[in-house]
Amino acid sequence: MAKDGSGSDPAAARRAPAGAAVLREDKTEAIRAAVFEELAAVGFARMSIEGIARRAGVGKTAVYRRWRSKLHLVLDVVSAVAAAGLPAPDTGSLRGDVRMLLEVAARALRHPMASQIIPDLLAEAARSPELAQALKAALHDSQEGVAAAVVARAVERGELPQDVDTRLALDLLTGPLYWRLLVVRDELPKGYLDALSGSVAAALGAE
Fold first, then answer.
1. Is this prediction's pTM over 0.85?
2. Angle at 125 between CA 85 and CA 86, to 5 degrees
3. Which keywords label this protein (predicted)?
4. Collapsing DSSP states into helix, strand and coil, what is residue 118?
């Protein structure tokens, strides 16, 4: 094997030092997936590092190497969801964009895991400012940029006035679905999303 002028092996020099912890990405992803499953199964209050590790098929040490507590683990997972965000649709019309956003949101909120996890975390957020901030980023701030992009394009097309309120747009887009699917826990009637799309566009002042 080739050696440098000092007689040492360059490849050996690049190896991680003995005993260094190597965080395997597959284990990290398994733990993150297990967090969602554990939250849906037992809720935040009863969730434990032991339960997460067991569900992920790893030892507790593997979890603690990455996160120092279950709160920090949940904060990381929620923040990752927020960072992923949703792409802003561009169908060519405000109503089409709104309809697509509502369809994506409704599909996500109807997922059994989301319908169990979100209410539980919102309740826990009342006791944890850190979790409340992370949830705000995941459930509001990440979507505000999408709503702003949809509104900006509608203004450019002449569908909306220049002074339209982007935050109002986001409230109108998400509020009815959160209310019906997570609070009332009712099904969406046939044609509901089409009717809601028209109502949102009209409420924003669409021409």
1. no
2. 5
3. DNA-binding, Transcription, Transcription regulation
4. helix
